[in-house]
Specification:
Blueprint lengths: L1 H20 L23 E16 L3 E17 L3 E14 L10 E3 L4 E18 L4 E12 L3 E9 L2 E24 L5 E17 L12 E6 L3 E10 L4 E9 L4 E9 L1
Antiparallel strand pairs: 1-2, 1-10, 1-13, 2-3, 3-5, 4-7, 5-6, 6-8, 7-8, 8-9, 9-10, 9-11, 11-12, 12-13
Length: 266
């Protein structure tokens, strides 16, 4: 029996992993996508989750900006019939832009190299649909949108010719939208493995309170967007005890992101 299970599942798992990894590293999204099939009860019901994502991305507008975030969120979802789900989440995120204040001019000194902002609030809404091909396999699709309610900001100063200039940089009105499709396999003991491609767009406004010269940042106010618009994801959803489940997911993106969530089905 065990040999038969391995014969059926191993090639499928390998195919799903290879398919996700074969997608070129591209852009990245906010929060986990989660399993393609709802974990709510078949007759309809609520599930909640708390999650964490380490997120990296690259934004550009003539120049490239490498962004790092740590996101913590809670989620409430309602699904039914094992085929659909709607969900909302709220959370907080910090942000770091590497080397943006650094200077290549030996006559210019800056108080710091990196932009670092503390925790700010965001919200997200999403929906999923799932079609079971048979008792083992199914295909699904999702869409998700995220908006950051507060702006990321940091202060720094530059000294050129002995004259210090203080400034505030803001990363404002950040939002993203995602759409993906994927394949899911039902594994023994109620576990689920899922993978697929997605497309993604994110945008934000960058502003500076004063003009700087001699630093890596050469623009005062402009809009930036994600460098690429397609990626892949791979995850597993594993039952724990008494309605709890563990979701582990990687998003194969511009810099690779990964996270986990623990959900509870009521």
């Amino acid at each position: 029996m065990k040999k038969k299970i391995l014969t059926i599942y191993f090639p499928v798992m390998l195919l799903m992993v290879v398919s996700a990894l074969a997608i070129p590293p591209r852009a990245d999204a906010s929060g986990l996508f989660g399993p393609l099939q709802t974990v709510s009860r078949e007759q309809g019901g609520l599930n909640t989750a708390v999650g964490y994502l380490y997120h990296e991305d690259t934004y550009e507008n003539g120049e490239s900006y490498r962004v790092k975030q740590n996101e913590i969120y809670s989620q409430a979802a309602y699904g039914a019939k094992n085929i659909w789900e709607i969900y909302g989440r709220v959370g907080v995120s910090n942000m770091k832009l590497s080397g943006i204040f650094a200077s290549s001019d030996h006559f210019v000194e800056t108080s710091k190299d990196d932009f670092e902002a503390d925790w700010e609030f965001f919200g997200a809404l999403g929906a999923k649909v799932f079609y079971p091909i048979n008792a083992v396999f199914g295909v699904g699709a999702f869409m998700q949108g995220t908006y950051y309610f507060t702006d990321f900001s940091d202060h720094a100063s530059i000294t050129s010719g002995g004259v210090p200039i203080k400034t505030e940089m803001k990363f404002e009105n950040l939002w993203d939208a995602d759409f993906g499709i994927g394949l899911q396999a039902q594994l023994p003991c109620g576990a689920k493995l899922y993978a697929g491609p997605y497309i993604y767009y994110s945008e934000a406004d960058m502003s500076l309170s004063s003009d700087w010269t001699g630093t890596e940042y050469t623009k005062k106010d402009h809009t930036v967007s994600n460098q690429s618009m397609a990626g892949g994801f791979l995850g597993a959803d594993i039952p724990l005890i008494r309605g709890f489940r563990l979701n582990v997911e990687g998003q194969f993106a511009d810099r690779f992101s990964a996270g986990l969530a623990v959900s509870y089905t009521y």
